[in-house]
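Re: iron/sulfur cluster structure - here you go.
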Amino acid sequence: MAYDKFTVLKSTAVPLPIENVDTDQIIPARFLKATTRNGFGDNLFRDWRYNGDDTPKQDFILNNPIYSGKILVGGTNFGSGSSREHAAWAIYDYGFRCVVSSFFADIFRGNCINVGILPVQVSAAFLEKMFTSIEANPNAEFTVGLQAQTITNTTTGEAEPFDINGYKKNNLLNGFDDIDYLQAMDTEIKAFASARPI
Amino acid sequence: MIFLQFFPNNDGYLQNNSKPFTMSNKPDTLFDKVWDAHVVRKIEDGPDVFFIDRHFIHEVTSPVAFLGLQTRGVQVMFPDQTFATADHNTPTINQHLPVQDPLSANQLKALEENSHKYGISHWGLGNPKNGIVHVVGPENGITQPGMTIVCGDSHTSTHGAFGAIAFGIGTSEVEMVLASQCIMQPKPLKMRINVNGPLGKAVTPKDVTLYIISKLTTAGATGYFVEYAGDVFEKMSMEGRMTVCNMSIEMGARGGMIAPDETTYNYINGRLFAPKGEAWAKALAYWKTLKTDDGATFDKEYTFDAADIEPMITYGTNPGMGMGISRSIPMAEDLKGGAATYDKSLKYMDFHEKDQMIGKKVDFVFIGSCTNGRIEDFRAFASIIKGRQKAEHVTAWVVPGSHIVEQQIKDEGILDILTNAGFLLRQPGCSACLAMNDDKVPAGKYAVSTSNRNFEGRQGPGSRTLLASPLVAAAAAVTGFVTDPRDLM
Ligand code: SF4
């Protein structure tokens, strides 16, 4: 499904300085039983966010009202484990539009782009500075410019470029998705298929 | 015969496989040969438009993809190339009764209705071909060398054991495959992992893979596609190769593959969807070209000595946190990476640096999953429990990967061994691997599990998972404690 265009995002950020955050933490398997993609935000980080009796865990960052924003900043190797796209849906549904880390797991990174979330991979040093900056000032603001491929700490002026391939960038800027592209290739794909042995 | 419809153009094998050889003399890797034969179009500064031969779907990650198709008003391009099986949230007892959990029942119904609507083969609950997607694909001969195979499940890497390029995809990509039989994929980097030498006593394919992951860490192969090479894999059965390729994703790799050989051909020959007659001869001629040429290069290469591997067990909350069963838990300072994350992990497990794993109390044992739910795994499990009794305080879930495996367990007399030792054989499904059904480990309890993930809460909220081989699981099941299986052999 095509999604909203992504151009420039200016927002405060929510820090989650934990490494190897796997998709089972982002959305535990028992919440994967829906047949639509809406509503997963309520269970984002469910077991870190709520106690067994559904009361919020006060020490978890999403339950701390001083942190908010559309940018989620995670530790290295973010999104490892299960391929469930529900993890990206949950992040999107909660209200995030950009995830920043110093390293992303492969499938998760692709899933993010496919649902309209921009994964921004920064250096370990820049990530550390982001955490420090948010800790010092929860209202620290960041600007993510997709056209310019730069993330800037609006408060301190520090900036870093990030990578994204031209095709995916164009998709996000225009709100296109891959199926739009593939459908236009229908004849070419069918010709290829008929030359395949299987 | 159904298989004919999958080989509309038998000459295609020759047309296709002659390509890499006549067009270039450059030595190629197995991975390149298969990948390059599936690129429909290269997008400049973008991914490849990548053709998919076989697509598996299950109830959890497909409903939203079908919803997308419906919204767009698009048909499934090649319904014969997609196969549906119900596995993730199915119960493992009383499968003949209606599924109790309404949400699970709803997903199962969606899978059935969508498959029916779009003309996709559907192996639902009770179907003799039903089982875990990565078990039933190979055992029905759908998985073959040189193919590209995807499924909305990260352990699709399992099928790489046949010399296929197989990997997990997200739901948006499931929708892409349904709509166009293609996905958009940048070509990964190439890694080769060599393991040579004789394996020690009680060292199984699961130990080999847990060992490799402990060396590379959970992110060590991110961005790469792995080829496993060396005599350890050459001597391994197909079941063992599937266990190894299955776990490739646990070190971040997109997938792993092993060059097909006689073991592979013999496994496939005669299975339901295997090519037959003339088509078999042609397929075989193609399959024999599927190996890495001498002199081909990889972006990264590791070599391990089989003699260094002992039966493995994990002590933390990711599959990279594994060690030889006779060792003690490493100190944070001896590991690269964040001490804070390491501490959090040990705290969750309620373990401490330098603890011995042997002797730790075990509450649950799970044998099954797409990692270790095949016949060979139950043979191994049975070899230890035979003549012993299940420890009283242990709850054991013995879950075959498919009905075919379940039947083999019965035919080979393993069921009697299980029953005599106090174990109950359940019905096939993913079960406690991800605890979407009722097979959940309660908070704080320890499970020795033959599955693939020990993440926090993976086997139920608050559950604590120790990943291990079927032999280690059996040893724990009969003693009630983490036990070195070599002591029971
Ligand atoms: S057994 Fe586990 S890993 Fe395998 S397909 Fe099922 S849930 Fe996924």
